[in-house]
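user: Kindly work through both lines:
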Amino acid sequence: MNLAQFPRRGYVKQPTPVEPLPSFSKALGGKVNIWIKRDDTLPGTGGGNKTRKLDFCIADALARGADTIITCGAVQSNHCRLTLAWAVKEGLDCHLVLEERVPGSYNPQSSGNNFLFQMLGVSSVTVVPGGSPMLQEMQKLADKLAAAGRKPYIIPGGASNSIGALGYVQCAQELQQQMFEQGCNFDHVIVPSGSAGTHAGFLLGMLACNMNIPVTGIGVNRKKPVQEQAVFDLMHQTADLIGAAVNIPREAVVAYDDYVGPGYSLPTAAMAEAVTLLARTESILLDPVYSGKAMSGLIDLVRKGVLPAGSNVLFLHTGGSPALYAYEDTFRKSWA
């Protein structure tokens, strides 16, 4: 696949580390060897997986003459933080449309990513009720800005369209080379699965590289059939964009919905355990919405024996630790 045909900004300058987690693996019984790919170390304010996607999305925006970026997410969105951060770096205005998925959860004085929106000088924040048609809400804002003489460019939530997913097609290619150079092989990969772009791009890249390694998504928002269909559809859209003739078996798309808990961004005891355990064994911070719930899924799959003894399992860490500071009470209560 020729990804060089697409413009990008060069935000990803080197491969992110692939590291073993010996103490974490031991804490889970030592039967499974767990590794981690550290996309939390990607450049950008606070790091995280969206930098790979925005590398392509913002390049496309600039190629189209945009001077303003509009995107959306939840009230503590890591994606919104990173989109704003890269827009600032590029000298672009950035407007955020935040979906209050949990009624009453938006507080302009809160910590975490919400604080960073203000620190980075967001151009405007529009808060809409949960369940709002987000593309329509962003288009309304784009029309208003265009009428005022701006040239807006809309990036969907999570940068999860075919352009953004290219970043994770590239990540799969990167991993293939790292496995060769480091002499490590994996029996399974676990990825967070939310807006679908990371999961879809990564799985497409793995299939296109003939890696023959199962990839399991741990869903953080939608029911299993809906999430798997979203990933499957985006894989096809991305393959069409690249012009790649890749066989995409429907059964290759797996996204558990067992670890969402009461809803998107709502904490679970298993998430708090996962975040705390990784911090106290490996000094690595997860986030409470995506990577924390995904790691709680990995832990459960190890404990249930779904991931066989002796297997080498790679966890894709998508970042997001700045959001932890909006969940202090959750963690303090779990420690008590």
Notes: The two ends are 51 Å apart (CA to CA). The chain has two domains: 18-44+161-334, 49-155. The beta strands are 18-20, 33-38, 68-74, 93-100, 124-129, 152-155, 188-193, 215-219, 254-256, 312-317. The longest strand covers residues 93-100.
